[in-house]
Amino acid sequence: MEKRNTILIVDDDYRNIFALAAVLKARGFSVESANGMQEAFEVLDRNRQIELVLLDMMMPDMDGYEALPRLKQYPEYAHLPIIAVTAQAMVGDREKCLEAGADDYLSKPVDIDVLLKMLQRFL
Asked: What kind of fold does domain 6-122 have according to CATH?
């Protein structure tokens, strides 16, 4: 059986999760999702097969700028590539995400071709 890469999508908007998950599953990826960081940590603890995280940077309880350093401080998650996904596409936002600990940055609306190239690079 062919190995399927597992991606965790963390976003507080179910529409974003649904759309990204549909595209990724159609491309052969396995997808987990969480609607906030508390749930994301639970999913990560439960599923050690997750190989990459797509992290929405603007969530109400804990935004990505707070979540990134927390994720990276745990040895079991430090290796995970994290792609910051945000609707903010202002000058300096990419750098801000990378400084917070993201491995790459993707603006919304997500360009699927760009996302797939990123996934290819990290997985």
From this structure: Rossmann fold (3.40.50)
